[in-house]
Each structure stands twice: as C-alpha cells, then as structure tokens.
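Hi R.,

As promised on Friday, here is the backbone we talked about, encoded as structure tokens. Could you run it through your design pipeline when you get a chance and send me back a sequence?
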C-alpha cells in the first residue's frame, strides 16, 4: 500500500510492504539514520493515520524498518480494520 514517512532526514512517499501491530517495512530510496525518530502515514480505517516510531533497520537501496511507539486508542481502532483484533500487549 502507498504511504509516506517523515523524519530528520526528510519526508517522502513510500510503499508499505509489511505492517504489523509493532511496526512496518517501507520501500524507500531515502536513507535515514538508524535510531532516527520518524512518523509513518498509513492508510487504515478509511483514512490516513500518522504513527510515530523509530528506524530500527536500514537496507540501502531497498528500504527501512520502523518500530512503532506505543499506539493510541485511535491508532489501534484504525489499524484493527487492516490487521484484525490487536494482541492484548498492544491495547
């Protein structure tokens, strides 16, 4: 699915190829720093939601992995339509 991300390294659109309750992988050519705070915009629940997180893996020329910060009730509600019921550790 198409989304975007922004952080200290800049902002750009991306392809979200994997999303879970704890994070996601983004296909992007921009190379941020490992550990950099970021905000990912994900289409979920019929709208675009912003989820803050941190870059935990960088694969140059392919993309980045983001670990989400603690999700809010609104983010959990929106992601439930995409991912199903959250595990008890998320809510």
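Update: got your reply. Pasting your designed sequence below so it's all in one thread:
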């Amino acid at each position: 699915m198409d989304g975007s991300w922004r952080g200290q390294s800049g902002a750009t659109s991306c392809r979200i190829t994997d999303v879970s309750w704890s994070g996601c992988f983004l296909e992007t050519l921009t190379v941020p720093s490992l550990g950099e705070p970021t905000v990912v915009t994900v289409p979920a629940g019929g709208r675009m939601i912003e989820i803050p997180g941190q870059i935990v893996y960088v694969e140059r020329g392919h993309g980045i992995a983001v670990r989400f910060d603690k999700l809010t009730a609104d983010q959990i509600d929106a992601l439930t339509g995409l991912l199903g019921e959250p595990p008890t550790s998320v809510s």
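One thing I noticed while checking it: The chain has one domain: 2-69.

Thanks again,
M.
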